[in-house]
Amino acid sequence: MENNQISYDKAVKRIEEIVGILESGEEGIDQLSVLVKEAADLVKQCKSKLRMTEEEINKAFEE
């Protein structure tokens, strides 16, 4: 899955899907590694988007 241009809402939804898959215990160990890496990348992107949004909001209130 290409995550570079994914929206925050879609990223959160995908993270929730991955958590569901992980909780089900149905995936093999190789796939688990791929899913955990994908989820970690999505979490980083979400944190970055939240940080950027917070900065934009703070700037707007300073003006």
Number of helices: 2
Percentage of β-strand residues:
under 5%
Distance between the termini: 39 Å
The ordered H/E elements are HH
Radius of gyration: 15 Å
Mean pLDDT: 91
Largest sheet: none
Which structural class fits the helix and strand makeup? Answer: mainly alpha
Helix coverage percent? over 70%
InterPro entries: Exonuc_VII_S, Exonuc_VII_ssu_sf
GO molecular function: exodeoxyribonuclease VII activity
Organism: Belliella pelovolcani
Coiled coil: 36-63
Describe the secondary structure blueprint for this structure.
Blueprint: H1 8-24, H2 29-62
Helix pairs in contact: 1-2
Describe the protein.
There is one protein chain. This protein has helices at 8-24, 29-62. The N and C termini lie far apart (39 Å). The protein is mainly alpha-helical. It is built from two helices and no strands.
Entry keywords:
about 60 residues; mainly alpha; 2 helices; about 80% helix; Exonuc_VII_S; Exonuc_VII_ssu_sf; hydrolase
Brief characterization of the structure:
The chain has a domain at 29-63.
